[in-house]
Amino acid sequence: MLVLPLIVVFVFSFGERGPAGGYAPAFSFDNFLNLGARWAAFKNTMVLAPIGTLACLLIAYPLAYFLAVRASPKWQTMLLILVIVPFWTSILIRSYAWIFLLGGKGLPSLIAAMGLGHIQLINTPFAVLVGIVYGYLPLMVFPIYVSLERLDKRLLEAASDLGAPPMNTFLTVTLPLSMPGVATGCMLVFILLMGEFLIPAMLGGGKVFFVGNALVDLFVQSRNWAFGSAVAVALVLVMLITVTAYMRFTRRWAGGRDDISLM
Amino acid sequence: MRLYALAVYLFLYVPIGIIVLFSFNAGKAASQLQGLSVQWYGKALSNTFVVEAFQNSLVVALTSSILATVFGTMAALALQSVKGKSRALFDAMIYIAVMVPGIVIGIATLIAMVTLFDLVNPALKALFAGAANAPQLGLGYGSLIAAHGLFSMSLVIIIVRARISGMDRSLIEASADLGATPWGTFRQVTLPQIAPGILAGFLLAFTFSFDDFIIAFFVAGSNTTLPIYVFSSIRRGVTPEINAIGSMVLAVSLCLLIAAQSILRRKADKS
What we know:
The complex is a heterodimer. By secondary structure, chain A is an all-alpha fold. Chain A is 73% helix and 0% strand. The two termini of chain A are 26 Å apart. The mean pLDDT of chain B is 83.
């Protein structure tokens, strides 16, 4: 059930566009040779997906650390639920909130009123990045929190008893031990970002688009399913290659991966 | 540290709060607050397109989550007896279904379904050769329910399985030793224990389907669900009416989430 549709996509990618759109059987590599036509989408995705993942990580790590190590146990569960709840609410509405905030009458007009000049926020890579961080932060916080929570607190006490300054303890004990969580979080966010459609569609306004947007265009608007399938196959291949390389790279210093669950 | 956490929470919740606040705007301008009123809620609820889209969403979410819950629970129970290599394979496949981007699932389901329809429709036509209009399969309710049901089934499996593994196995053995039939044991021992997981899985499957845009966008055909309606009207500009619809959607998923969470936690505390 899961694999069959992917095989159909693979077969379609060698076909050609039907006379009335859709798909007509054929066998050629033309679609793959034409991939250059959608190069901009691949380039945007390959640039913004890693940057977005990194931005999520940088913002999520201190929060996860706070939740796991510093927060009082009384509030811990409540605070954790507050992080997860947005993840389960409509990403459409949450991205829409940022159209509202970053649009001409939102923050830019506030900045202009403060006499700081006019700036364009919506329909820029920055807006897409804000949307990405907003949408995927919970997914990054959770695995890091889990790995920090499991961390044996006695190790931290031992390090400080032996005279290590807090920063050293963090860098040599906490950080390496939380790497499995970091690796899981980065991979989850990165994989989902590679296929992202909604956030660039809403906050990029046609100027910043991902492979996902190219796919929607090819399947829904121009109805060139064969070429669309080729783009999809290329996307899955790029994803597989990056994820495999990433896993090879992380396994060397991160050990196993944590099991994640979002409820 | 505390200030940083506060800032992140503000970042997470202020945009949502602003949408809700502006949905009560008395004025017509989307971004100027001119007193409070509920007029936009009235307007949204009397818009026939919104009501129709809402009904579609509700029907699809309800049917697909019931299907996902029934089949997901059965799958989770069946997976118990699968061990070793094939178990690892099943586990990997379930996690893949949750991790693959929605867009790939949407496209793959669309293509698979259209291919299937192309195969089945001529056969149906031949079968009903005499009838004036032979039944033909097409994209619509059915395909959307199937796609959502399939996808949220893996959510249900993961949640129910977590409860099964936390269950006290000796109770089942005790029940069997005391002469209960397998069905009796299931009904009186297993089911009550995993019920919270099933219910939580159902609520999450419902939330998923109700909020989903991307899969619906591909396979809904000419049917409109609420997220599709919101997406296409955002393209025409920001209005207080969308704020009101958005706030209602958020409220629905929040209620379901809180219900799911409290069910899972209350039972977890007891055991």
